[in-house]
Inverse folding.
């Protein structure tokens, strides 16, 4: 028995080492970015050091005081939040319909929706540019938010449908017998039941809208320019200010890290799209 | 669960339908429109039928980009999926501080904007200021991702593994979490080997999520754009010009609307075809599970 226990113990500690090694592999490049953001440009290009010799926060101060930098963050957050709200509002009823009813063409419709998640953004760049220019939405937050619904709405429907399937239909029926109207039932009973699903779907919408570059760069120029676009343009324009670029990169990781901390207990299920 | 037949459910799907129609069908029709027309400028278009499709299908350029893309996706799937399963098997099983920390750290690369991922690796691999490049150079390994195409490939593959393996890990982890402890206890009583526990308990339970993982990894690696664009810009030469990069070059850089549109449609069809196959398998295994 003690032998068995020690075998288990060995296995646990070996597992831990595998995970730690993997996490080190993940963290090293990120550490390097943070390291660089705390150095002056002269130090970055001057020599090689594992940690900042001459610690400076100047790069961060530049970003927080220069409107062309910090407005990028505000613009990104604006369209990401808009996109998340739009996606959830339209996806909730649709996911309910898919999880509860069969109707004409439902399977084809579902696959058609999913196929939009599969569409390479590169295919849509030019048509989007023309479409939003022609309706006068070019360089607005709502244009990017709408463009990102292309892949976020199908994903939200998919995730929510997975979570809703786990709620027994008897609950709906009991509520109707008790005289609840559909909207009342949906808001008061059903939504609290799938709250974690809604959280996960919101997380995914946030995530995919936050990390996307190609569409947000194409659809904005000045007023709604995203932080991702700001970063790529600075690279080409001002002869590579490595320190500021690194600081900007570090700051883009923070919102994601915060959001992921709040949903950490649901991430695993959410990544499985509710299908576990 | 048995579903009720209710055609009025269409009304609940209607908002999604309208929204996606606006952001997908109209642009897609624009692409179709371009793919069958040519222009001399001034917004005057004329009908050319399927000429662009013939041209693109026979062009060396598409074949090469498609070849590189297929090779890249195959390598990514071959490395990412087994590695992801392996890490997931080693993740801490019981809820607690340690497992929360692991989950958050593992998920972190997924939330970094793609261009920042590119920037991180662009810097990390540089021989003068990057940890990886500098270490390799001081070990005497000749490594330069901006000039050597093999090095560029390795950098991009390692980057993609770094960026996306966590998705596979999290999916598989979710699958593993759903296995009741009793299964493992039964296996222990039967003195099952580690391999047979994996083969007969864990793998079947992970099947559903694994198919989703492969599907997502296939789609996303097949349409990869931002990361290699930032790191190598498609170079050296055309060595890392994948389909999306080539397409954007053609459509925005050279403004060859007709060929680019035909290219787009062929590209989209490829993805659709493979994804449809996966989707069918997924639905099938869902049915089996119920």
């Amino acid at each position: 028995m003690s032998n068995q226990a020690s075998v288990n113990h060995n296995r646990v500690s070996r597992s831990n080492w595998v995970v730690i090694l993997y996490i080190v592999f993940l963290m090293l490049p990120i550490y390097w970015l943070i390291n660089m953001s705390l150095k002056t440009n002269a130090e970055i290009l001057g020599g090689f050091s594992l940690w900042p010799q001459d610690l400076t926060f100047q790069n961060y101060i530049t970003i927080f005081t220069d409107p062309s930098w910090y407005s990028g963050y505000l613009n990104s957050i604006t369209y990401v939040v808009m996109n998340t709200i739009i996606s959830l509002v339209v996806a909730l009823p649709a996911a309910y319909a898919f999880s509860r009813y069969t109707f004409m063409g439902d399977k084809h419709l579902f696959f058609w929706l999913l196929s939009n998640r599969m569409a390479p953004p590169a295919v849509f760049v030019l048509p989007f540019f023309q479409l939003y220019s022609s309706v006068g939405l070019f360089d607005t937050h709502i244009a990017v938010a709408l463009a990102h619904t292309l892949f976020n709405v199908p994903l939200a429907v998919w995730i929510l449908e997975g979570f809703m399937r786990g709620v027994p239909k008897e609950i709906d029926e009991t509520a109707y017998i008790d005289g609840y109207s559909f909207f009342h039932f949906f808001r008061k009973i059903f939504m609290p039941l799938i709250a974690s699903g809604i959280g996960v779907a919101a997380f995914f919408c946030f995530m995919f809208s936050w990390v996307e570059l190609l569409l947000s760069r194409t659809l904005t120029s000045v007023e709604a320019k995203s932080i991702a676009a700001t970063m790529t343009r600075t690279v080409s324009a001002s002869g590579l200010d490595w320190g500021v670029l690194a600081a900007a990169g570090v700051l883009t990781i923070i919102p994601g890290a915060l959001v992921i901390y709040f949903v950490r207990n649901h991430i695993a299920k959410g990544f499985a799209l509710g299908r576990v | 669960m048995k579903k009720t037949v209710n055609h009025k459910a269409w009304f609940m799907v209607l908002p999604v339908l309208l929204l996606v129609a606006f952001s997908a069908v109209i642009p897609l029709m624009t692409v179709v429109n371009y793919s069958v027309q040519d222009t001399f400028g001034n917004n005057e278009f004329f009908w050319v039928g399927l000429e662009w499709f013939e041209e693109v299908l026979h062009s060396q350029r598409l074949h090469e980009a498609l070849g590189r893309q297929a090779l890249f996706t195959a390598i990514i799937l071959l490395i990412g999926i087994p590695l992801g399963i392996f890490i997931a098997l080693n993740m801490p099983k019981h809820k607690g501080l340690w497992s929360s920390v692991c989950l958050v750290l593992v998920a972190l690369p997924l939330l970094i904007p793609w261009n920042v991922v590119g920037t991180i690796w662009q810097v990390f691999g540089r021989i003068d200021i990057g940890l990886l490049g500098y270490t390799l150079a001081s070990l005497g390994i000749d490594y330069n991702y901006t000039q050597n195409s093999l090095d560029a490939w390795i950098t991009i593959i390692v980057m993609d593994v770094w960026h996306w393996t966590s998705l596979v890990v999290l999916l598989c982890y979710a699958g593993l979490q759903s296995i009741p402890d009793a299964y493992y206890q039964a296996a222990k009583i039967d003195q099952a080997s580690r391999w047979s526990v994996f083969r007969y308990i864990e793998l079947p339970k992970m099947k559903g999520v694994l198919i989703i993982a492969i599907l997502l990894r296939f789609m996303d690696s097949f349409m990869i754009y931002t990361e290699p664009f930032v790191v190598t810009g498609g170079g050296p030469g055309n060595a890392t010009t994948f389909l999306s990069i080539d397409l954007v070059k053609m459509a925005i850089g050279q403004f060859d609307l007709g060929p680019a549109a035909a290219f787009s449609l062929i590209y989209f069809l490829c993805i659709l075809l493979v994804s449809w196959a996966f989707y069918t398998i997924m639905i099938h295994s869902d049915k089996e599970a119920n």
Observations:
- The beta strands of chain B are 4-5, 37-39, 45-47.
